[in-house]
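Instructor's aside before we start: the two examples that follow are unrelated to each other. I chose them only because their records fit on one page, so don't look for a connection. First example below.
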Amino acid sequence: MTRSGDLFDRAKRVLPGGVNSPVRAFRAVGGSPFFVARGHGSSLADVDGNEYVDYVCSWGALILGHAHPVVRAAVAQAVERGWTYGAPCDAEVELAEEVRRRMPSLEMMRFVNSGTEATMAAVRLARAATGRDLIIKFDGCYHGHADSFLVKAGSGVATFGLPDSPGVPAELAHLTLTAPFNDARTVADLFHKHADKIAAVIVEPYVGNAGFIAPDPDFHPALRLLCDRHGALLIFDEVMTGFRVAAGGAQQQLGVTPDLTTLGKIVGGGFPVGVYGGRAELMHRIAPEGPVYQAGTMSGNPVAMAAGLATLRETARPGFYEALELRTDRLVAGIAAVAASHGVPASVSHAGSMWGIYLTPGPVRNYDDARQTDTALFARWHKAALARGVFLAPSSFEAAFVSSAHSEADIAFTIRELDAALGEARGG
């Protein structure tokens, strides 16, 4: 037995499914997960000595790659000063100022410990500010594991949601309306039916939790117009896209300004951090200035703040995003060519260094389209790619990422090995 196999057996005796986040169990692609010994640059090494070019990048958090020396030094310096205070520190002010400089729509913000915390707080604030209870989310968009977000569409495209997990009260699920991504007409219909009850529309501006789905050019402007017309707030969940698809996130890329934004992943440099923020007049409602309560023992953690600040400063170097996007474009074009050479229908696209592939002709505009992907072929491809040293997300419905640590040699290696792996997967 491998060391990873032994660890997985032990883990299953003390952790549900042997993991601390479901997708890590590899159930969507079969087989067992490998256990990481260390990460360095663009690669992960497992406990059995195997090495993989990594396109998961801690689910998008590591835009600089693993163990970047600048971030490592910032973290070491922070730890020397102590790793939690329960009191304010200068790093949280500096990071907030850097975030606001990059995303001016966040006039004020609050640091929390995860993307889930950030989206929970943003929705609570939206409900308080509008005096309304309903929210609209989109099929296939994931906003964390809070009860309000674990909701899927019913039989109609404009129905009230139903609980998507046991333990979510139906009464709470009924406060979440759902619509297909890229379908502003359905959102307009929901506003027509419930206009005076809808507090907010929350959306991943580029979907990353159903695979990668780009928005139609007129989709987000339409959401902005509908929210303005009906007095609701527009919330961009940029936990994944923030500082990833562009220096100023998706809102800069799309030219649409939300009322509230949630951030995570890159903003903490790979440490547990979340942010929610927006217009100052909204954020003044948060305690202790206002009545909307939210708190956290570890919020503004000095080590996480140092890692996030070091990361954002590195990504601010001239040409950083342009070089990263060019490298991603080469990878995506290469994968599309590989699929075509094997006669496999594929839809491959990216925004900045965030990318995804569906094994279906496309176009993929929403979650229903995404579900047409060939999950069985992807599972075989994933297994063959892993055996050849390429780590793709262990699910057909997750976005992938390129970091600044990925070299041209990494890209060439990946395309070559994915080509061979797809041949093996088709043969299987």
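Example two begins here.
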Amino acid sequence: MAWGVLTAMPSDAQDTRATARELVKKWQDAIVNIRVVVKMRMSMAGREMQSSDDTIEAVGTVIDPGGLTVVSLGSINPGAMMTKLMGAGAAGQGVDIASEPTDVKIRLSDGREIQARIALRDEDLNLAFIRPTAAPEKPFVAINLADAAQPGMLDEVLVLGRLGRVGGWVPAAALREIGGIVSKPRTFFVLSGETAGVGTPAFMLNGRIVGILTLRQIANDRPSAFAAMNGPEGLGLLSVILPAADVLDIAKQATEKK
């Protein structure tokens, strides 16, 4: 019987990976790159000390055939997140980092770049919704957030992504496990192991979506030189999956403001 168990395990693993590869093929075109020109400003006691225009690249997930795309707000507009990371000490000295996107483009899997705009921001959940400025010539490949499932502890999920310029813009994927489930103040799913990217989807292996990866951040009121030794959580950051139903509720607001 022991030999029977050992010979079955590789087959199960191969089946899992074959299923995951099919999901990657199905949804890879819904994962897009976002290029944003951001005006960064640093001020102290209300006086501007530094200003620059920087180009930021991020990854987003198309959730509507019209091109509505969800992305992590902090990845395209990092000012508020950077100020929080500096903590109350910097705030007490009047230090503030502000940023504002001035140009937004969606880069599709075939290399085309489409001019876009930010349709809605949710700072509490660190999400932004981006929409093409003109109606697309043909429908986008879009993930259906309504076809959702809730995983349990240690369930395996497929996380999709897309590499940037250095990686040749190719699709990326990883099989991960749910390592924790936060229930308050709202539900978040936490992946086990190292942190993952943001703005990308996670799926159950039956093809139903779990949600979108983002960063949960709390104010780092008492930063110290050793905070980073405790990993991202020491800095007040946690990579989480926001359930698809919650993302869909916010996306409806972006649609109403179209």
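The chain is about 20% helix and 40% strand.
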